[in-house]
Design a protein that fits this description.
The chain is elongated. It has 2 helices and 11 strands; from the N terminus they run E-E-H-E-E-E-E-E-H-E-E-E-E.
């Protein structure tokens, strides 16, 4: 979900993340995660507060632009915006260490036929 503000309306958050915001917390299917009282006020969602409860990383490009990553409650998504150590061959077959780009914004595109 791309963010241009730190607070969004409930409908925008639900549509962008797939999490329904209910009195018992943020829910997806049978899973509900309690939220703090500050997470939702006057039908506006404090994205950072909800993201912390759901284990969703926020990657900031500028103060006015950020991306909200997927929830990691099931342990299958990254718990932060930091990529794991990864060394793969480049186009010439030489090893390329992803860590050499640490501190820079990087987009990884992955594909698999399986």
């Amino acid at each position: 979900m791309i963010l241009t503000t730190e607070r969004v309306d409930r409908e925008t958050f639900e549509r962008g993340t797939g999490w329904a915001l209910r009195p018992e917390g943020a829910c997806r299917g049978d899973v509900c995660v309690p939220l703090t009282a500050a997470a939702i006020r006057d039908d506006a969602v404090d994205v950072a507060a909800v993201a912390e409860s759901l284990g969703m990383p926020i990657v900031r490009h500028t103060k006015a632009l950020a991306a909200l990553g997927p929830a990691s409650l099931g342990g299958r998504a990254l718990t932060s915006a930091t990529a794991p150590d990864l060394v793969l061959p480049d186009l010439d077959g030489k090893p390329f260490d992803l860590a050499s780009l640490r501190g820079q914004k990087v987009v990884l595109v992955a594909w698999s036929p399986y």
